[in-house]
Amino acid sequence: MVYRVGLLGLGTVGTGVVQILQRPGHPLLRAVDIGAVGVRSLDKPREVQIPPERLTTDLERIVSDPEIDIVIELLGGLEPARSLILKAIDHGKQVITANKAVIARYGAEIFQAAAQAKVSVLLEAAVAGGIPILQPLQQSLRANHLQAVWGIINGTTNFILSQMTQEGISFEEALAIAQARGYAEADPSADVEGWDAADKIAILASLAFGLPVEREHIPCEGIRDISATDIRYAREWGFTFKLLAIAQSSPRAASSAGPSRLDIRVHPTLLPLTHPLASINGVDNAVLVQGDPLGQVVLSGPGAGRGPTASAVVGDLLTLIAHLQTGAQVPNPLLGFPPLLPFSAGGAEPPQLQVGIPLAELEAEFYVRVLAQDQPGVIGAIGTCFGNHRVSLESITQKECHREQAEIVILTHTVREADCQRAIAEIRQLPQVAGIPGLFRVLR
Amino acid sequence: MVYRVGLLGLGTVGTGVVQILQRPGHPLLRAVDIGAVGVRSLDKPREVQIPPERLTTDLERIVSDPEIDIVIELLGGLEPARSLILKAIDHGKQVITANKAVIARYGAEIFQAAAQAKVSVLLEAAVAGGIPILQPLQQSLRANHLQAVWGIINGTTNFILSQMTQEGISFEEALAIAQARGYAEADPSADVEGWDAADKIAILASLAFGLPVEREHIPCEGIRDISATDIRYAREWGFTFKLLAIAQSSPRAASSAGPSRLDIRVHPTLLPLTHPLASINGVDNAVLVQGDPLGQVVLSGPGAGRGPTASAVVGDLLTLIAHLQTGAQVPNPLLGFPPLLPFSAGGAEPPQLQVGIPLAELEAEFYVRVLAQDQPGVIGAIGTCFGNHRVSLESITQKECHREQAEIVILTHTVREADCQRAIAEIRQLPQVAGIPGLFRVLR
Ligand SMILES: NC(=O)c1ccc[n+]([C@@H]2O[C@H](COP(=O)([O-])OP(=O)(O)OC[C@H]3O[C@@H](n4cnc5c(N)ncnc54)[C@H](OP(=O)(O)O)[C@@H]3O)[C@@H](O)[C@H]2O)c1
Ligand SMILES: NC(=O)c1ccc[n+]([C@@H]2O[C@H](COP(=O)([O-])OP(=O)(O)OC[C@H]3O[C@@H](n4cnc5c(N)ncnc54)[C@H](OP(=O)(O)O)[C@@H]3O)[C@@H](O)[C@H]2O)c1
User: Fold this and answer.
1) Nearest Cβ partner for A330 among B144, B291, B327
2) Two domains, one topology: B3-123 and B134-302+342-355
3) Contacts of A16 in chain B (CB under 8 A)
4) Where is each ACT domain found (chains A, B) (predicted)?
């Protein structure tokens, strides 16, 4: 049996996929024939050889071609990717994609359509590149009551933070290096504002907690405001900065009724240097999964790049072909994305989770850096503001003075964010205070 | 549809499996009924409630009971585990096991039988406890040409080495702590001699490289000879001691013909503190997988214990049920262990790998600690011996003197092991030399 693949896109990842398929690492992949490749330009020089009659700009034809069994979408962007995926499903094709943006926004629509058409949509490459994370979350780890998924899932920002940490340079300098090396785009917003990480944690959270997660319910803060100074002070206290994407079930206080809540967010975080995610540097990604009775596992490796991403795409292709070869009549319920389907279908109650908690309601320790006039009494005034809002402090230190200014760095105990924000607002009003350039959460 | 499970063994892991199944984390697991549980003693108090009529000492009956669909073997040991697994297969049952000892020795026999009976034998829990590693190696990572699998896959020895490193204590003291905490058995040989790690790397290597690995082809050295002194000196140079299980394809020298070779071995290793496996401490396990075009991924987490191991067993059960629900007519070729089957069946040539390389033929850097009389010229004499056998040195240091004795610690460049061994033999003959208590490989 030969499986005919329609490949949409022959860019970074698409080229990597063709390279693997032209020299497959597993015998089952020899059953694959690349029937058609859809691109924007037929004239562009390509790094791989594709018979000219198979290269086309007519992507609509690929996804409706009765000869094609499996469509691999590697275009990127929202449209025409979304429409082509839906059309491929309508025509009964299995689908593989690396497109986190489309899945995070249109996942519900896509997986509903896939369930109706009885096809699978696989997307291992969409999150954390070459690291196996979606399949383990659905299979090996799935017997657990999953409690938390924490990820460093954006390689660009991890590279920038690693550079800032190692070289003591500013965000702008580190961004320029990332751009020069091709790790950041000319407009780096999607990465540095945390939007890409938010797309990915939406996907991880839906899988881990079995419920749809709306992208807009994810509070998201980027890394632009982190300064070399904050990184240095954090380090002195044994912390390192990481852009964390977090999804965890958060039991309500015993007093209040209602379902548990899914705490999901993306923001820069100070992690103790001994934390298992603290040593993930450069463009690497890592995902920590905590479950009961499992405990914690950490999966780490290259989160992007041609080779790792293509490896995940072709891993999905292999998984799909193996499944099709068994004579199965329906999709395997642990492949693709059944959690987004109506829960009644599987006979299960929907999980009792309210998605998204406003940051103000969460608890954390905080790192705060205040610029103030170097006057006696300023530490006392700042401490009093925190006390007024029941924010208890672990440490308050006057760091260094220049031009009559003092830098005062504070580490709080675990407090409600709303209380900390109120204290901060009061501190901003103090006559001695010039500004609060650093305010970050500390997690352990 | 209800799937009836026959559970063989209700000890540490078996009890954990029942606990998960009595409070399942995934709706598909509600289709599981624990039809029978086989134990040695009916009178032992149990931590979980099993209806008395389902508890039996007649394990033969469980594996031949037509009502049972899936047999989970959690007895441990070679017999009767092997015979019961084979009998279950003969009776057409799907099998799940956590028994690395049986699989490492009788895997070929068992998987051959499973292929004939068209059933799957799953064993995620047999290697690295709760860490998903066998499924990723077979699915998400399988599109790669796998080059190396390095593992810290014995929690007992990793705990002992971590204790020795953190507390500066001896092997015997650390072993006693491990025994007191239940991490080491009264007879700790299987762990500390590296035999358990060898069982597991045999399984990992067969999966990763797609060929049967005979347990006897794996050179294996334990951790008994590591002293607190060696750990301290290694640390000063930026290394930490780990018991590594290694499987990697080793291309022959360009000059020589013949297939590539599979370098597979277990021994204590000095790793740079910056190595991704260097920070795996305590009873945790980790597996590093390197492939082309993937690069390196590292999967880490709890390598043993009731919860993590049961999590992996029930993960396999879920995978199996999901597969059975699809109406598949044959086992999924990416579940269980097809690589041990005759390769012609899949239309693939057998991989061109010769399994096992004598350590003497391998290359490494070496750490050597020599006890010698504190006399002028001794460093020169030792250096000359190394030079005689073309062992080039990175560093040779006289550490401290007590009772007229000097400790001389050497780090070589990368050399053939046979050359290093010849130099060591010559050094042993030097009149000034009292002994060579430390000789270990350094890998990066
Ligand atoms: N690159 C990574 O490291 C990475 C990692 C993880 C996930 N991903 C995801 O993988 C997907 C592909 O990324 P990539 O880096 O390979 O993108 P890319 O290099 O920009 O390639 C995109 C390809 O799609 C084609 N294409 C785009 N829009 C098209 C249209 N409207 N009609 C026809 N063809 C069109 C382009 O054709 P032309 O060649 O003719 O221009 C090109 O071949 C994205 O969803 C991305 O998020 C990428
Ligand atoms: N423990 C771990 O952390 C761990 C981790 C990874 C893999 N594993 C593997 O999991 C398997 C089970 O380990 P375990 O720690 O759960 O072992 P265990 O605590 O010693 O339990 C063994 C169970 O099997 C029963 N049993 C043993 N021999 C029997 C026989 N001949 N007839 C009937 N019943 C018999 C015992 O019955 P009684 O209760 O009546 O004595 C007991 O219930 C082993 O293969 C082990 O290598 C264990």
Assistant:
1) B327
2) no
3) 293
4) 367-441
Residue A79: band (very low, low, confident or very high) from pLDDT cuts 50, 70, 90: very high
Q: Is B342 a residue whose pLDDT tops 50?
A: no
Q: Model confidence over A277-304: pLDDT tens digits?
A: 999 999 999 999 999 999 999 999 999 9
CB pair distance less than 8 Å for B135 and A131: no
Least confident stretch, A151-155, A207-211, B159-163, B341-345: B341-345
Residue in A142, A149, A323, A341 to test binding to B, most B beta-carbons within 10 Å: A142
- The span from the CA of A58 to the CA of A63, in Å, is 9
Ligand 2, atom 20, lies closest to the CA of: B11
Give the start-to-end residue ranges of the domains of chain A. Answer: 3-123, 134-302+342-355, 362-442
Q: At B350, list the tokens.
A: 């057998």
Confidence of residue A137 (pLDDT cuts 50, 70, 90): very high
In chain A, positions 98-137, which contact chain B (CB-CB < 8 Å)?
124, 130-132, 135-136
Place of tokens 């593992």: B151
With beta carbons under 8 A apart, name residues in chain B contacting A311: 141, 143-144, 291, 293-294
For chain B, percent helix, then strand, then coil, each to nearest 5?
40, 25, 35
pTM of the model: 0.95
- What is the rounded CA–CA span in Å between residue B48 and residue B21? 11
Residue type, B165: T
Residue B423 or residue A251, greater confidence: B423
How confident is residue A349, by pLDDT bands cut at 50, 70 and 90?
low
Alpha helical stretches, state H, A122-277: 134-138, 155-167, 171-180, 189-192, 195-209, 228-236
Q: Does B22 touch chain A (CB under 8 A)?
A: no
Cβ-Cβ contacts under 8 Å, A18 against chain B: none
| Nearest ligand by distance to the CA of B45 | 2
Ligand 1 centre to CA of A99 (Å) is: 9
User: SS3 for A35?
Assistant: strand
Q: In this predicted structure, what is the pLDDT of residue B347? A: 42
Asked if A291 has any chain B CB less than 8 Å from its own CB, the reply is yes
Distance B12 CA to ligand 2 centre (A): 7
A44 C-beta closer than 6 A to ligand 1: yes
CA of A83 to the centre of ligand 1 (A): 15
Domain B134-302+342-355: give its CATH code: 3.30.360.10
Calpha distance B100→B121 (Å, rounded):
13
A339 pLDDT more than 70: no
DSSP-based three-state secondary structure for B45: coil
Q: Which helix (H) or strand (E) holds B196?
A: helix B195-209
CATH code: domain B3-123 is 3.40.50.720
Q: Residue B336 — left, alpha, or beta (φ > 0 → left; ψ -120 to 50 → alpha)? A: left
Whole-number CA gyration radius for chain B: 24
Q: Which residue is catalytic, options A93, A100, A200, A242?
A: A200
Question: What pLDDT score does B295 carry?
Answer: 97
Q: Which ligand is nearest to the CA of B155?
A: 2
Six token digits for residue A342: 């109506």
The CATH fold assigned to B362-442 is Alpha-Beta Plaits (3.30.70)
Across A331-335, A414-418, B193-197, least confident range? A331-335
Report which protein residue has its CA nearest ligand 1's atom 12.
A74
A276 touches chain B (CB under 8 A): yes
Residues of A within 8 A of B144 (CB-CB) are 20, 25, 311
Strand partners, B265: B246
B338 or A236: which carries more pLDDT confidence? Answer: A236
Over residues B229-284, the pLDDT tens digits come to 999 999 999 999 999 999 999 865 555 555 678 999 999 999 999 999 999 999 99
The torsion of the CA quartet B230, B233, B235, B238, rounded to 10 degrees, works out to -120
